[in-house]
Amino acid sequence: MIFKGNCTALVTPFTKRSKVNFKVLEKLIENQIKNGTKAILILGTTGESVTLTEKEKIDIVNFAKKVVNKRVPLIVGAGSNNTNEAIRLSRLFQSLGADAILSITPYYNKTTQFGLIKHFSAIAKSVDIPIILYNVPSRTGVNILPQTVFELSKIYNIVGIKEASGNLNQISKIIHLCPKDFAVYSGDDSLTLPSLSVGSQGVISVAANVFPQKINKMCELFFIGKTEEAKQIHQQMLETFEILFCEVNPIPVKAALNIMGFCVGSLRPPLLSISRKNYYKLKEIIKKVGD
Asked: DSSP H helical segments within the chain, as ranges?
C-alpha cells in the first residue's frame, strides 16, 4: 500500500503571466506535509495537467521531488487515451523519481472492458513502480467495472484505484472482489467517510488543498475507531465539499486557496475564474468552516 489516509491532489499554482509558480508550489507542499497529509499527487486533474507542456511537467516533478524529499510518497499523474503515450509518460516520470503513477482510463476514444485490461496491463509492464488506476466516468465517459478492477489487481504493481464513480455500491464490490492488499481510495470528497466505512483505505482529495488538517484528521479518527468524531468532521465539511464542485474542478479550489492567501493564481484556458455569485458563497463557507 502506497499510503493510508489522505493524499492531496495538488493544484498547480501560476504567476500573473501564467507561468508555473514554484515558490508557491513549495509553500503548498510544505503546508500539506505540516498538516499530516500522507501522500501528494501532482499533475492530476486538479493540477491542470492537460494544459501543461511536457517541459513544465518535468520541471514540476523534479521540483516537487526535491521539496518532498521522501517525507511522503509523491504520486504523479501519467495517464493518456493513447496507450503508447501513457507508457512513455509513465517511464519518464519513473526515471524522474516518482514513487507511483496515477493512470486514468482512456477518454474520448474510450474502450471496452477488455480494452481497459490491455491498456493498463501494457502500462504496468512498462514500469517497476506502483500504479493506481483512476476511474472517473463523469470526465472520461468510461467506467472500470468491479470485475475488470479485479482482473487488473492480479498484476503485481497495480496496487490500487482512485474510485470517483460516485457509486458506493461499486466501491463496495471492488473491495469485496479484490485482495486485501489492493487499496481502494475515494475520489469524491463527499464519499470519503462512507467509503471508509465499507473498507476503503483513504481518499485522493481536492478539499484537502483547502483544509488538509480536517481531511487528515477525519481519516485518522476513523482508523482508530473514533467514528463519531470522524462523522462530526464529515458533517462540518459537507458544505465545503459541495461548493468546491459547484463549478468544474479546479475552478473553485483555486479560488478558495486565493481567498486564503496562498496566491495560486488563475486558471489556464479553457477554464475561467469562478462566477461572482459562487465566489462570495465560497468565501462565506471558508470563513465558517475555518473559524
From this structure: 22-34, 54-68, 83-95, 113-126, 137-140, 146-152, 168-177, 192-197, 212-223, 227-243, 251-259, 276-290
pTM of the prediction?
0.96
Active site residue 280: no
Tens place of pLDDT per residue across the chain (291 aa): 899 999 999 999 999 999 999 999 999 999 999 999 999 999 999 999 999 999 999 999 999 999 999 999 999 999 999 999 999 999 999 999 999 999 999 999 999 999 999 999 999 999 999 999 999 999 999 999 999 999 999 999 999 999 999 999 999 999 999 999 999 999 999 999 999 999 999 999 999 999 999 999 999 999 999 999 999 999 999 999 999 999 999 999 999 999 999 999 999 999 999 999 999 999 999 999 876
Is 277 known to be catalytic?
no
Question: Which stretch of DSSP H or E encloses residue 161?
Answer: strand 158-163
User: Is residue 102 assigned to a domain?
Assistant: yes
Given 162, 214, 217, 254, the catalytic residue = 162
Q: What is the CATH number of the domain that holds 103?
A: 3.20.20.70
Domain count, the chain: 1
Of 134, 185, 214, 254, which one is the catalytic site residue?
A: 134
Give the domain extent around 38: 5-224
